[in-house]
Amino acid sequence: MSPKFIGVGVGPGDPELVTLKAARYIQQADIISYIANSKGESQAKSIARLVLPPAGGYEELPLLMPMSEARAAANTVYDNAAIAIHSAIKAGKQVVFLCEGDPLFFGSFAYLLLRLQGEVNCEVVPGISSLHAASSALQLPLTLLQESFAVVSGRHSFEKLAAALRQHESVVILKAGRSRQRILAALQATGRTAEAQYLEYIGREAERIQRDIQHLDAEPGPYFSLFVVTKQQRKHH
Amino acid sequence: MSPKFIGVGVGPGDPELVTLKAARYIQQADIISYIANSKGESQAKSIARLVLPPAGGYEELPLLMPMSEARAAANTVYDNAAIAIHSAIKAGKQVVFLCEGDPLFFGSFAYLLLRLQGEVNCEVVPGISSLHAASSALQLPLTLLQESFAVVSGRHSFEKLAAALRQHESVVILKAGRSRQRILAALQATGRTAEAQYLEYIGREAERIQRDIQHLDAEPGPYFSLFVVTKQQRKHH
User: Fold this and answer.
1) CATH of domain B130-229
2) How far apart (Å, rounded) are the C-alpha atoms in residues B95 and B108?
3) Which residues of chain B from 172 to 231 reach within 8 Å of chain A, CB to CB?
4) Cβ separation of B124 and A142 shorter than 8 Å?
5) Regarding the domain delimited by A5-125, which CATH topology (the fold level of the hierarchy) does it fall under?
6) What is the ipTM of this complex?
7) What pLDDT digit, counting tens, does each position of B57-83 carry?
8) B130-229: same fold as B5-125?
9) Contact (CB, 8 A) for B127 and B8
């Protein structure tokens, strides 16, 4: 296989939700790269633990992300990583970047891909996103037949949240941690509180599912939390 | 493992996009069920070919779907299948239902699940949906940071398509086959033609990607076709 930069989705948390293709690429990699915190801990690497080759079988290229929310600091990390990955691929190495969930769905991989596209061969292996992990955990169809479906971020304005809740039968609200109060208010204002369910840390040890969000307090929750809103009364078709 | 009805996503076409968990459940199944056409051919079963045990290692329960679009005929098939699955599980068997893509995203599995939930133990294993397969094939981020994202069906009205195209940065239009003309008109009316890309049969032999949809004629296309629309000018963040 010619040297490539390959973004690989490892799914949202359950290590068995890695695909056969992701497993194969991870096992063939010369360099495995991932986002890590300042201690070097990486959620994506932890999710990939079932398929990672034994230590020493590959080089690691962790992207240590600063805690700060400043984009400039993150951009410097991406710039440096892109240069390192570029030179590794030119030297004939296979570089696999591990991504939580799906690589191109609200993920950091996009920032590396934008820097390397056109410069080196790239490939993307899709992963199970939190959308599909959430509906599976709830055993709730995300969409049926003619229904339409929107994904919004908890960071959106009250107006944008309410508009999506009014216009689409199914709505998933991601990044619901800090803005839980605003989300609960938008659900209330659009009459959809009873149609909403709440999840955090899907497929991880700390997984929590709250089917009746009346019991959810208005305190902020973790980053990996989301609401799934669907039409309550669905008939058999 | 106690007997269960398990819906398992096998991904959109590439047999390597099956998860380790789906593979394990398929290999442990007593009965493997799937939608088939009147000749008994099943797309989902074909996608699962890398992980299906040798013939004879399991019983098969195909749901032969009538060609007609009448819901009543399909409902009869689901009713019968639900009864057969229910009795198999009560007899201690593990029943795995193979689903193209993700089981709960526009899939037929929902109709079986609605009939069996509360009656027998159920579980759902998420799969790679066409959303994520499409963005991987295009190497195109579906969403970045504050962007919002909608999924609509080509069967929706012109007005509904246009509203989604106006309100969301990213839009995926599924089931784009028969209504290609209406979709092209809605893209034109909302000024998003240049931001749209077209795909059909992702990950299959007949895969086709049209990045410049100006070259797409207005004839109907296959059922498994979709448009991905994203903001054209994305800056590095």
Assistant:
1) 3.30.950.10
2) 16
3) none
4) no
5) Cobalt-precorrin-4 Transmethylase; domain 1 (3.40.1010)
6) 0.93
7) 899 999 998 877 678 888 999 999 999
8) no
9) yes
